[in-house]
Amino acid sequence: MFNVKKRDVMFTGIQPTGLLTLGNYCGTMCNWKTIQKTYQCFFCIADLHALTSRNNNYIKNSFSTTILDMVALYLSCGVNPNDSTIFVQSDVYTHSQLYWILSNFVYFGELSRMTQFKKKLSINKTRINLSLFCYPVLMAADILLYQTNCVSVGLDQKQHIELVQKIARRFNSIYGDIFIIPDILDFSRQCKIMALQEPTKKMSKSDNNINNTIFLLDSLDTIRFKLLHSLTDSDPLSRIKYDIFNKPGISNLLLILSFLTKKNISVLEDEFKNYRYFDFKEQLSDIVCDRILKIQKLYFKFRKDEDYLIDILRFGSKKSLIYSQKNFFNILQALK
Ligand code: TRP
C-alpha cells in the first residue's frame, strides 16, 4: 500500500511551539531537501514533547494551528510529502508505548545529568514535572522505533542523542541486535548559530531580546534591521575574519552566510576581505532576505490550503503507524 523503499532512515522531530528561527533553519532544515534524496525521512511533529513546556501554571493551549503552521513550514523548506513522511507524534501510539518500555533501560542518574533538564531545574526548582525529566526517553522511543540510521538535530541535542545510543546498546546487549544505533547526521558540519546581540550564546526562539533572534516569519524589514544592528567586534581594522574567541559577532555572521551559500568560511573570508563591517552586513542581509522571502512565499501558499495539510498528516500517521508497529512487535517479542 505504501511505497516504502529499503533505504537508510533519517528521523527528526520539532516541537510545535513558537516560531522557527534562522538558527533552526541553518542547523537542520536547510539540509532536508537534499537529505530526502538519499534517506527515507520521517519528520515528526513532537506534540507530546511540547506538553512539557506548558507546565507553568498549567495553561490551556491548543497545538492544532501551530501543527499546521509547522507542516506548511516543512513543505516550504523543501520537504516533499511524496518522498518523506510528515506526521504528528500523538497520532502514533507506539511512541508512548515504547517510551514506557525504554524507561526501564535508563538510570535516574543518567537523566539527572542532562544539561537541558538541569537548566530547567535551575530556573524552576519547585514545580518541575516528571515529563521534563523523562523527555529524553520519549526521544529515544521516537528514534529507535523507526530503526533510524541517522538523526537530524542541532548541536544542542547532542547529549540527548548520545543517551539514545546508550539506551539502544544496553537493550541490545540483553536481547540481541534489536535496535540500530543511530548517528547524528553530518556532524562535522554542525555549528550553532548564536544570538545576534550576544554572540556567545545560542540563538533561541525564547530569547527575551527579540533582536537576538531572526524568525523565519519575520518581515524582511525586521530581518534587515536585526542583521544590520547585530553586535560586531571592536577591531580597528574591521576585518571579516572567522575567530570565535576574539570576533564572535563577525564569526557568527560568516557562519550564517556559509550555511546559506554552502561556501567554505575561508572562501567567504577571501571574498569579503576588503569589505567594511557595514557593507558585509548589507550583503549578508540581501542573501538572508532573499532566502527567507522564498520560504515565506511558499509558506503562505501552503498554509492557506488546510485540507491539503491535514491530508498530508493523515497519510503520514497511517504510514508511520504501519512502519513503527512492525518494529514495535519485534521489540515486544524480544522481551517475552
Ligand atoms: N527534542 C527535540 C528538540 O527540541 C525535538 C525532538 C523530539 C526530536 N523527538 C525527537 C528531535 C526525535 C530528533 C529526534 O529539538
UniProtKB/TrEMBL annotation:
Enzyme kind, highest EC tier: ligase
Superkingdom to which the source organism belongs: Bacteria
Transmembrane domains' residue ranges: none
GO cellular component, one term: cytosol
Single GO term (MF): tryptophan-tRNA ligase activity
Pfam families: tRNA-synt_1b
Entry keywords, A to Z: Aminoacyl-tRNA synthetase, ATP-binding, Ligase, Nucleotide-binding, Protein biosynthesis
UniProt GO BP: tryptophanyl-tRNA aminoacylation
CDD domains the UniProt entry points to: TrpRS_core
InterPro entries: aa-tRNA-synth_I_CS (IPR001412), aa-tRNA-synth_Ic (IPR002305), Rossmann-like_a/b/a_fold (IPR014729), Trp-tRNA-ligase (IPR002306), Trp-tRNA_synthetase (IPR050203)
Entry's EC annotation: 6.1.1.2
Family: Belongs to the class-I aminoacyl-tRNA synthetase family.
Cited NCBIfam families: trpS (TIGR00233)
Protein name, UniProt field: Tryptophan--tRNA ligase
Gene that specifies this protein: trpS
